Each structure stands twice: as structure tokens, then as C-alpha cells.
Amino acid sequence: MPLIVKDSGAWKYPSKVYAKDSGTWKQANQVWVRQGGTWYQMLTTLEITASSSDFVLYTALGSPIVPLTATIEIASGVTISSSNTSTAAFNISGFPAGSVIYLINNGTIVGSGGVGAARVDGSGRAGAAKPGLAGGTALYTRNTLQLTNNGTIGGGGGGGGGGGRTNTGGQAYDDYTGNGGGGAGIIVGSGGGGAGPAAASGTSTTGGAGNGYYSNPGSSEQQYGSVGGAGGARGAAGANGTPFPGTDGTNSGGAAGNAIDGISYTTKITAGTIAGPEVN
User: pLDDT higher for 40 or 171?
Assistant: First the structure.
């Protein structure tokens, strides 16, 4: 079982433990308990002082096999990011049931940006445009989490949708649509890049602009205004491509990445800045 102490008649999980050494109280970085001839770690601390990506806390703490209490502090100026939208920037899962994690974030935890939609050629409405891709998750937990967020936690921005057809009939003179911009993230979403120039990629905090396509100037029915949507800022969805006719829903912007996936496991001691959905 994890370390529990009695305080004013109530059992509580301590985030810190102090021991008296030569008359002076000092904070213990680790606490071990011997049971059945085996030493088990009950409490540990970890300070994260260097930026990294795809951080898995369970691995960083040595893959413990018994429940424990851990206090984790991310230092100011440190950024934890994700390398792709399928992987959370900071993962808290895999610990034995009963474990309690105290996370003190003084830095930035941010998901990867979603890719903007590429322009698609073709003459039918079904191939008129593509949707932007969703941004990635910042913080994922499936263990009990006590969160003190003095910094920023943000999902990746969604990619912008491709430009919609300017003519829902899909005539050949309207063969191309605009590209969607990339979503924000430390690992940014790239702008869509079908035929012609690619749209702008995102930045660490803002989405990239979409671009447009204008049909052959020699056409008797030249089409204008098929423009890809902008990528989403940190924690925001990408914009739809325009125009957005009701008969063609393929040019939607990508969803915002989750700031926290595992909110039902999380108690916010300090909320801080959180950008993006909080789910589960």
C-alpha cells in the first residue's frame, strides 16, 4: 500500500516526509518499508530540469511493482512536448492501484500540432477537400493525480481544413481546393501541401494560415475563394476551409488536442493555465 499518515484524525497521502537528523528536520527524498524480507519503495521525489518529449513517468521512476506516493516537479523554463499526435507529452499511467502522484508543473506541457489538410484534385464533390487532423494530448493520466499547475498545460492545435469547392457541382474547372494551415505545438503541425505551394505550418503557440487556389485564368468560368482554414492555436480546433457548402462536409478543421486526458483521476490544487479540452 502507499504511504499514508494520520492528520487530525484523518488518513492522508503525504506529498512530503521529513525526518530528524542530528537535531535538524530534513526532507526525505525517498521512503522505503521492509515487508516480508523485501524492501519496497513507498515515497519518491523527482525534479525534471531538462526539456524532453514523450515523457513516461512510470518508466522514469523505475517501473514500480507496489503502490507508491511520488512528488514530481517540473522546473521553470522546462518544456515537455510530444513527438506526434498519437503520443501524450506527459504520461502518468501503469502504476499499481493505490498509487498517488503529486505533479507540480512550473514549466510547459504541450501536445503536438495537427497537420493541415492537403488540397485535393478531382471533379467530384466527394473528393473536394480533406479535413484537418486533430492535435495531440498534453497530459494523460490513469492514476490518481494531485495537480499543482503553476505553468501551462495545452493540447496541440488542430490542423486547418482544406478549402471547399466553390461550385458544389464539382466541374472540372474547379479541380483544386486550398490547403489548411498546421496546428500549434512545440512539435508543430505542418501546413497542407497538395498541388501548388503548401500552407503555413503552425508555431509553438499559434496556428498557420491556410492558402487559396484560383482556377485557370483562361477559364470562361474562373473560380475564386477556395481557401484552406487556419490551423488552431494551442488548445484550439482548426478552422474549416471555405466555402463550406452543406453538401460537402469534408473540409472541417481538426479537433483541438486534449489538455488533460484523465480529468476524472485529477484533483486540481492549482489550476494555472490550461488550454484545450479536459476529458474522461
Answer: 40
DSSP H helical ranges for the chain? 57-60
Of 93, 98, 92, 87, nearest to 74 by C-alpha is 92
**128 with 144: CB under 8 angstroms?**
no
Categorize the per-residue pLDDT at 227 as very low, low, confident or very high, splitting at 50, 70 and 90: confident
Of 3-12, 205-214, 231-240, 249-258, where does mean pLDDT reach its minimum? 3-12
CA distance readout (Å), 99 to 14, 50, 60, 177: 12, 25, 15, 51
Return the amino acid letter for 176.
Y
The count of residues in the chain is 280
Bridge partners of residue 21, in order along the sequence: 24
Domain housing 266: 5-279
Amino acid residing at 126: A
Residue whose C-alpha is closest to residue 149's, from 268, 259, 48, 278: 268
CA distance 130 to 69: 46
Element (H, E) at 125: none
Counting the structural domains of the chain, the total is 1
- The C-alpha cell that represents 252 in the structure block: 472541417
3-state SS assignment for residue 92: strand
* Per-residue cell: 34: 521492509
CA 1 to each of CA 19, 29, 96, 225: distance values in angstroms, whole numbers, following the listed order:
21, 18, 9, 63
For the chain, give the mean pLDDT: 85
- 13 forms bridges with which residues in the sheet? none
